[in-house]
Design brief:
- With 430 residues, the chain is an alpha/beta fold.
- Helix 2 runs antiparallel to helix 10, helix 5 packs across helix 6 and helix 11 crosses helix 12.
- The chain folds into two domains: 134 residues, Aspartate Aminotransferase, domain 1; 249 residues, Aspartate Aminotransferase, domain 2.
- The protein binds 4'-deoxy-4'-aminopyridoxal-5'-phosphate.
- The site of 4'-deoxy-4'-aminopyridoxal-5'-phosphate has 16 residues, from helix 5.
Length: 430
């Protein structure tokens, strides 16, 4: 019998692997897994994180939206309205076009224009969350051995999406003055094709940090010099609690290149963090040429995203988008503030952590020899609190003294108790 087990990861539940009920592998033949899946394995840390599901656990691990402000009533009303109208229902329950619902794409194009990205409906493709967009972009742009530049640390889900294409990862070093350099992945070798740069410029997963305009321009310059595509993955962008929004890299590039059809930037957006992740609606905004190729991949992958979910999302976007952003930001701002006000009491002296202006994460560098994978084991097993060890977000085993805390799911009281538990776990290991 094959049992699939699920763990909380990032904002989502990821299938961590499979186990068989018998002692042997349970299959009478040798599975011939494709070469591209060689490097794709369940990680030790993911195994550890299964513990998060235990009752009484306070989890700072997953970047999971707070369900208390899910617009459940409005979603119910939207499904009802669609299903009660026979014309709407027959469209919403039917196969639909691969590019996505035209009215939703049009709403998204307007939303992107409000950020300075001059685009139209044909520059938008609807995907099943932005995670699907990352997978498609990996398929479209990465051949085995190609160079892919990522920050260190970076979003684990992007590594998972790209790794089956077997890239060589290089690390992006971004300085405050806007100079950007690449390290690793044989950066000077001309035998390696420069494929793409991947960044999460707003309230990054895992650090919570936001790139300044100078830094964004530096990335665009590097990409132009090396002829690379830039993936701007920005699902947290609307969750800004403080400060002024930065212009998207895509807006800056469109300004310099003369239009979106000449731009090297592909923007991935999502409704998961503002509304609900469960409807799985995200999008890509890019040149017509790239959208048409991604559409072919979409067709071969799942034909289209569920039409009914797109119609529901359109209804939510048209009616409550702004108020939902305000609700999410005010809830998360309070939680971030509680975490930031207490974190200093529990971390070893001289530890450092980020002070995000938005998003879901705080990134901590411990001033101690403690390996955060071991700390997770002790913290979860003996103290009932979980987080993600830093190593999960690196391609090269770094980050052993780092950890990611998400403040979005627990209540403010739970944040306080959870931090106290974490402090005790750190003391127990010191
Ligand atoms: N990009 C980043 C940086 C993320 O943190 C996430 C969610 N963890 C995603 C993409 C995927 O989000 P979704 O598929 O729900 O849009």
């Amino acid at each position: 019998m094959v049992i699939f087990y699920w763990i909380s990861w990032g904002n989502s539940m990821i299938n961590a692997g499979s186990i068989t009920g018998s002692k042997s592998s349970g299959v009478p033949w040798k599975p011939c897994y494709a070469e591209r899946m060689r490097g794709v394995q369940a990680s030790e840390i993911r195994e550890l994180l299964k513990i998060v599901e235990q009752p009484g656990m306070i989890s700072f691990a997953g970047g999971i939206p707070d369900p208390t402000f899910f617009p459940t009533e409005q979603i119910k009303a939207a499904y009802n309205a669609i299903l009660s109208d026979s014309t709407e229902a027959s469209k919403a329950l039917q196969y639909s076009v691969s590019e996505g619902d035209a009215e939703l794409r049009s709403w998204i194009a307007g939303h992107m224009r409000s950020k300075g990205i001059l685009c139209d409906v044909e520059h938008i493709l609807i995907t099943n969350g932005s995670q699907q967009a990352l997978e498609f972009l990996g398929k479209l742009f990465i051949s085995p051995g190609d160079r892919v530049a990522v920050t260190a640390p970076t979003y684990l889900g992007a590594l998972q999406a790209f790794s089956p294409s077997q890239p060589e990862y290089a690390t992006l070093h971004i300085s405050e003055d806007g100079s950007v350099a690449l390290e690793g992945g044989d950066t000077d070798s001309e035998d390696i094709h420069d494929a793409l740069v991947y960044v999460v410029p707003d309230f990054a997963n895992p650090t919570g940090e936001t790139l300044s305009e100078v830094e964004r321009r530096g990335i665009l310059e590097l990409a132009a010099e090396r002829g690379m595509l830039v993936i701007e993955d920005s699902p947290y962008e609307m969750l800004r609690f403080d400060g002024i929004p930065e212009l998207p890299l895509q807006a800056l590039d469109i300004d310099g290149s003369g239009g979106i059809d000449a731009s090297r930037v592909v923007y991935c957006g999502s409704f998961s963090k503002v509304f609900v992740p469960g409807l799985r609606v995200g999008w890509v905004c890019a040149s017509r040429e790239i959208i048409s190729r991604l559409t072919l991949i979409k067709q071969s992958s799942d034909l289209s995203s569920p039409a009914i979910n797109q119609r529901v999302m359109l209804h939510l976007a048209r009616t409550i988008y702004d108020e939902q952003v305000v609700r999410a930001c005010s809830t998360y701002r309070k939680k971030r503030d509680v975490m930031l006000s207490l974190i200093g009491e529990v971390m070893p002296a001289d530890s450092r952590w980020t002070h995000p202006d938005g998003g879901m994460f705080i990134w901590v560098k411990l001033a101690s020899e403690i390996d955060t994978r071991e700390l997770l084991e002790v913290a979860a097993r003996d103290f009932g609190v979980a987080f993600v060890p830093g190593q999960a977000f690196y391609v090269n085993n770094k980050g052993r003294d780092m950890l990611r805390l998400s403040y979005t799911l627990p209540s403010t009281d739970e944040i306080e108790i959870g931090l106290q538990r974490l402090g005790k776990a750190i003391l127990a290991m010191s």
